Amino acid sequence: MDREALADFLTRRRRELQPDDVGLPAGVRRRTPGLRREEVALLATMSADYYTRLEQQRGPQPSVQLLASLARALRLTADQRDYLFRVAGHNPPDRSEAGDHVAPALLRVLGRLSDTPALIINQLGETLCQNEPARALFGDATTRTGWERSEIYRWFMHPDTERRRYPEEDRDRQTHAQVAGLRMALSTMGKSSRAGRLVDELTRHSEEFTALWAEHEVARRFADHKVLIHPEIGPIEVDCQVLFTEDQSQALLVLTAEPHTDDEDKLRLLSVVGTQTFAPDRE
What are the transmembrane regions (predicted)? Predict the structure, then answer.
C-alpha cells in the first residue's frame, strides 16, 4: 500500500468535485475548493474520521468494499478506479465482470433526478444505484447480497413475490424478456463470467428457466411502456426511458408518467409513502 500516493490521489480527486456534481447542496461559502472531507465520507457511507486519516496517510489499509464506495463517491472513471485499488494494495476488479463500479456519466444524470424513479442497473439486473422514488417503488436494493441482487435470479427463484410488481397479464412477456436479456449478457460477458454462472445456477434450480433458455431468445429486456404495481399505491402506468453506457454494460432507467394523469400523481405520492408499509384498515 502506497499511503502517500493514496492520500494525494484522494485529496486531488476530492478537490476537483463540486457539490452539484454529486447531488449535494452548495451551502454556505466555501473557503477551500471542491468537496469537504465529511461530504466524501457521507457519499461513501464511511466515517469522516476514517476518511480524514486516509488523506493524512494515517489510516489502515481500506477494504475492497470501501474502495468501491470511494470510487463511486469521487465519480472515478474505470482507469482511476483501478489506480485507486492498486495504490491501496489491492488488485483492481475484473472489468469483464458485471461489477459495482458505476459509470460517472450515469451517476451525474442520476444525481439530477429527484422527482421521478430512476436507477442504474448492470447486465445481470443488479441495481447499482437508485434515487429515493425508485427505492420507494422497488424497495431498497442495497440490502440484497449474492445472487439475490439479480432481478433475473429473483424472478425465477421467488416468482410469488418478485412478479407481484407486474399485472398478471404482463408476467409472461416479462418472463421471456428476463431470459432474452440474460442471453444478451452472456454473449458479451462470456460463459466463464458471472452471466455464465447465473445461467448454470438457474438451470439447476428452475425448470421454467431451463425450458425458456432452450428457445434461444435474444433481446434487451427494457420495455418502453409498462404498468408497475406498488403494494400501497396500486398500479402505475409509466414510460421507461433508458440511457446506456458506451459499452452498454450499464443502463440508467428513468420512469415517468403521462402529464396531468392519476399515474403522475401516484409517482409524486411515492416521495410521501417512501419505503414504509401500512397496516390493513380495521373496521
Answer: none
